[in-house]
Design goal:
By secondary structure, the chain is α/β, with parallel strands linked by helices. 49% of the residues lie in helices and 14% in strands. The protein has a five-stranded parallel β-sheet with strand order 2-3-1-4-5, sandwiched between helices. Helix 1 packs across helix 8 and helix 4 crosses helix 7. It is globular and about 55 Å long.
Length: 204
């Protein structure tokens, strides 16, 4: 059965690491899976340039256009073949980051017709811990400061409730652990929701 799983969280919370670990685990267990990420597609360079400049005003439209391309060219074709798709960020990120200077309803108006995820997993890690994790990065975008991440963390809380109010399944997991421990939390969620088969307990 096809399934769209999204991994979300603040910059530095480990979304890319956990996406990669989940895809590797699913493949090793014999599942047909594709890992992907956002933003992706022809507009990705333009989006990166906007983030690094003062043209952030245009980001909601750029992200929505890139998401439409991503869905049409990658996500939907893979789901139609019955694969599991694991995506590093999706429209919850848009609701969290882009609704800081605009209304949540406006950002949602650009995203409301897109496919809803079957499951969104949000990694909870404090802004302070995220900044500490990102300290060794060669470059930083404007959202990767402690001040900015505190604002985004609050916006994420509103965005999660916004999505839950519309019937979406958003699971919050503690990201303050080793990457293996966080991955185990995610795997248990998939077992609980029967996305993956739970292994039988060994007989004593």
């Amino acid at each position: 059965m096809s399934y769209l799983i999204v991994i979300e969280g603040l910059d530095g919370s480990g979304t890319t690491t956990q996406t990669d670990l989940l895809v590797e685990r699913l493949l090793s267990e014999g599942y047909d899976v594709l890992g992907t990420y956002e933003p992706r597609g022809p507009l990705e360079p333009e989006i990166r340039d906007c983030i690094d400049s003062s043209r952030t005003f245009y980001l909601p439209w750029y992200f929505a256009a890139a998401r439409a391309w991503h869905l049409a060219n990658i996500i939907e074709p893979e789901l139609q073949t019955g694969r599991i798709v694991v995506c590093d960020r999706y429209y919850l990120s848009s609701l969290a980051y882009q609704a800081i200077n605009r209304s949540m309803e406006f950002v949602w108006s650009l995203n409301k017709f897109f496919r809803r995820p079957h499951l969104t997993i949000c990694l909870n890690l404090s802004p302070e811990e995220c900044v500490e994790r990102m300290a060794d990065r060669a470059t930083h975008d404007p959202f990767e400061t402690l001040t900015s991440l505190k604002v985004v963390a609050e916006s994420y809380r509103h965005a999660i409730e916004f999505c839950r109010d519309r019937g979406e399944v958003v699971v919050e997991l503690c990201g303050n652990a080793s990457k293996e421990q966080v991955h185990d939390q995610i795997w248990r969620e998939l077992e609980k929701r029967r996305v993956v088969r739970k292994k039988a307990e060994p007989e004593l």
